[in-house]
Write a structure and sequence with these properties.
- This protein is α+β, with helices and mostly antiparallel strands.
- The chain has one domain: Jelly Rolls, CATH 2.60.120.10.
- The protein has two helices and eleven strands.
- The protein is 14% helix and 32% strand.
- The strands form three sheets. The chain has a six-stranded antiparallel sheet.
Length: 175
């Protein structure tokens, strides 16, 4: 039997320790995708909405992609319309973030505690709305609808929407 040098013994001991650690962590490693979840077996889902549905926010919504119609697990995306001179009801998306892209129009969004802060956005702007942030978008035009694409980290888009109480004077002044 051949004897090992001190350096070779340390190297084998470290290798053994690494192997032991890897074996201990193996149960926590990401599990491989099931056959039906592998990208090669997946399908692209196409939704072409032609009618709107009403939302808890009080706005017409073209339902795009969601857990219900496309099987998403962590996202939804819709087209929202704010009619001329109208606004959404003040609300939050409990536990979910939102990203908005304004397609058409100018929108004033009141937000924060008591809806005391505001920002005005127009076509071409992207907005990020953190989870649980109170907000109320208002269409600044009395003649044209504002339109936006909204993506949310909620696959069941409307389930996380909670209306909030509005101060009496909020929304009365558009500009």
């Amino acid at each position: 039997m051949r004897s090992l040098t001190r350096s070779q013994m340390r190297s084998r001991t470290r290798s053994g320790a690494v192997a032991t650690a890897l074996l201990a962590l193996a149960p926590f490693a990401a599990q491989p995708l099931r056959a039906e979840e592998k990208p090669a077996d997946a399908e692209i889902i196409v939704i072409h909405p032609t009618t709107t549905t009403d939302t808890k926010q009080g706005l017409p919504n073209f339902v795009g992609i969601s857990g219900k119609n496309a099987g998403t697990k962590h996202i939804s995306m819709n087209k929202v319309v704010i009619p001329p001179g109208k606004s959404a009801k003040a609300h939050i998306h409990k536990g979910f973030e939102s990203v908005v892209y304004i397609i058409k129009g100018r929108v004033k969004t009141l937000y924060g505690e008591g809806l005391k802060k505001s920002v005005i956005n127009e076509a071409g702007d992207f907005l990020y709305i953190p989870a649980d942030l109170p907000h109320k978008p208002i269409n600044l035009s009395d003649t044209e609808a504002a339109e936006a694409i909204v993506a949310r980290t909620d696959p069941n888009e409307q389930e996380s929407v909670e209306q909030i109480a509005e101060p009496q004077d909020v929304g009365a002044e558009k500009k």
